[in-house]
Write a structure and sequence with these properties.
By secondary structure, the chain is an alpha/beta fold. It is built from 15 helices and 15 strands. The longest helix has 21 residues. The structure holds NADP nicotinamide-adenine-dinucleotide phosphate (NAP). NADP nicotinamide-adenine-dinucleotide phosphate binds next to helix 1.
Length: about 475
């Protein structure tokens, strides 16, 4: 069964913040990979925009350096690099000023798709949207792509939505959550809704609990000042982890189209229980041989911002009542890994002499590294000597299953940008989804702030504070090991 690849029409893509870190690390390298894979039409044009004083040649040279720096060594084809750089130009623009906009307008071609990527601070979203619209640069078919963070709380997210809605329809707005662009995340939907095997078991009758872990080994590094104003709840949980939870918990949409999928995700967010104080663990990494503490990294000995968060969460609907979701994310942990684990219940009755609570059927979905899925099953240990059982994984590492084609799996950003050009919003967050996520997040944060909660210290290279282990122990469960 091979689905048709939908061709990408010729386009003009303007990248505001074209000289910034995200553009250099992800956007331009991703676009190059699409060109190298033959997916980018030869007529595509990429226009960088920023305040820097630069001509086209200098900008192209800086992008050539970024490709060398951020794509794997030996991954560049000189002829294709030359073709790619030829597509690129630069406009000097101040998002809050008047200069440069008429130059940009002249550059935009007729009869091609127009997309504008706002890879800039959120405070510039509205000034750019306003100028694009009022100066007649973006028409009613143009698309805008906005980066995270989409708001700091419900009020600011509502204000952003309101401001963008003054100039663009919801169908033109693409809010990026790059987790949704990951191959395995989409595979989660393929596995759930493309097979008969899982969906009948996908509920609280058969699933004991679900764990979602996004662990990082890095600390806050040079982003300390920014991060300390945000914390793990706003930076990771409100968006990425909740989006993953939604894809696991949602009802089967009637169709795989943007609004059918997003309607179902929205219902999940609205069914989330509020979180009790006992069900949240917040932490900060302590100083150690591997580096300074979180407090030293952010330069504030009294900071109460969490860089580790674990919580137990309920989804109050018929499908999930009684099945907890455990979420965990943090910095400077044991290994860099992102995993969703669906832990099935034990068989109702065991005919073998084995202890209960083994939970041998675990569907584990790895987002990084080594994207893939694994299903734990119980089998008989080979050999004579009676019926001894062992748990073995049915492994589906994409790298192994797909062989050479695994190398072709596009990075999340490049896939999402191509979806923008195709006009497919399925993997982008709708405005009401973002607001619903903040409406759930705000009271949780307000709760710990009102209690004056102080995050617990944890060792670097560990699995987080001991309290986080207790969160599951007291329910008779265990976290999955954080391993690379
Ligand atoms: P950055 O490195 O600070 O780059 C900011 C870009 O905006 C630069 O190109 C800058 O160029 C331009 N800019 C700043 N003020 C401007 C103005 N008044 N008019 C026009 N251009 C202006 O930031 P970044 O890390 O690339 O992040 C960009 C956005 O993506 C932010 O919203 C960030 O939260 C989000 N994001 C970033 C990452 C990441 O990995 N970096 C990941 C997720 C989300 P000039 O100074 O030359 O104008």
């Amino acid at each position: 069964m091979v689905a048709r690849i939908i061709p990408v029409e010729p386009f003009d893509l303007v990248i505001f913040g074209g000289t910034g870190d995200l553009a250099r690390r992800k956007i331009f390298p991703g676009l190059y990979r699409r060109l190298a894979d033959g997916q980018m039409p030869a007529e595509a044009r990429l226009i960088g925009a920023a305040r820097a004083e630069m001509d086209d040649a200098a900008f192209r040279a800086s992008i050539a350096v970024a490709l060398e720096e951020f794509l794997p060594a030996g991954g560049l084809d000189p002829a294709k690099v030359a073709q790619f750089l030829d597509m690129i130009s630069f406009v000097q623009i101040d998002a809050t000023g008047d200069a440069g906009w008429s130059v940009l307008k002249k550059k935009m071609r007729r009869d091609v798709v127009h997309a504008f990527y706002f890879s800039v601070a959120p405070s510039l979203f509205e000034p750019i949207a306003k100028r694009l619209k009022e100066r007649g640069i973006a028409g009613s078919a143009a698309r805008i792509v906005v980066e995270k963070p989409f708001g700091h709380d419900l009020d600011s997210a509502r204000a952003l939505n309101r401001n963008l809605a003054c100039y663009f329809d919801e169908a033109q707005i693409y809010r990026i959550d790059h987790y949704l662009g990951k191959e395995t995340v989409q595979n989660l939907m393929a596995v759930r809704f493309g097979n008969m095997l899982f969906e009948p078991l996908w509920n609280s009758q058969y699933i004991d609990h679900i764990q979602i872990t996004v662990a990082e080994t890095v600390g806050v590094g040079g982003r300390g000042e920014y991060y300390d104003r945000v914390g793990a709840m706003r930076d990771m949980v409100q968006n990425h982890l909740l989006q993953l939870l939604c894809l696991i918990a949602m009802e089967p949409p009637a169709r795989y189209d943007p609004d059918s999928v997003r309607d179902e995700k929205l219902k999940v967010i609205r069914a989330l229980d509020s979180v009790e104080p006992d069900d949240i663990v917040r932490g900060q990494y302590a100083g150690g041989p591997d580096g300074p503490s979180y407090l030293e990294d952010v330069g504030d000995a009294k900071s109460r911002t969490e860089c580790f968060l674990a919580m137990r969460l309920g989804v109050s609907n018929w499908r999930w009542a009684g099945t907890p979701f455990y979420l965990r994310t943090g910095k400077r942990l044991k290994a860099r890994t992102s995993e969703i684990a669906i832990v099935f219940k034990d068989a109702p009755h065991s005919i073998f002499d084995v202890p209960r609570g083994r939970h041998s059927n675990i569907l584990s979905i790895r987002l990084q590294p080594n994207e893939g899925m694994q299903l734990g099953v119980t089998i008989k240990e080979p050999g004579p000597g009676g019926m001894r059982l062992i748990d073995v994984p049915l492994d589906m590492s994409f790298a192994e299953a797909l062989g050479e084609r695994a190398g072709e799996i596009p990075d999340a950003y490049e896939r999402l940008i191509m979806d923008v050009i195709r006009g497919n919003q399925t993997l982008f967050m709708r405005g009401d989804e973002v607001e619903a996520a903040w409406a759930w997040t705000d009271p949780v944060i307000a709760g710990w702030e009102a209690r004056g909660h102080i995050p617990s210290p944890y060792d670097q290279g560990s699995s987080g504070p001991d309290d986080a282990l207790m969160l599951l122990h007291r329910d008779g469960r265990r976290w999955r090991e954080i391993r690379p």
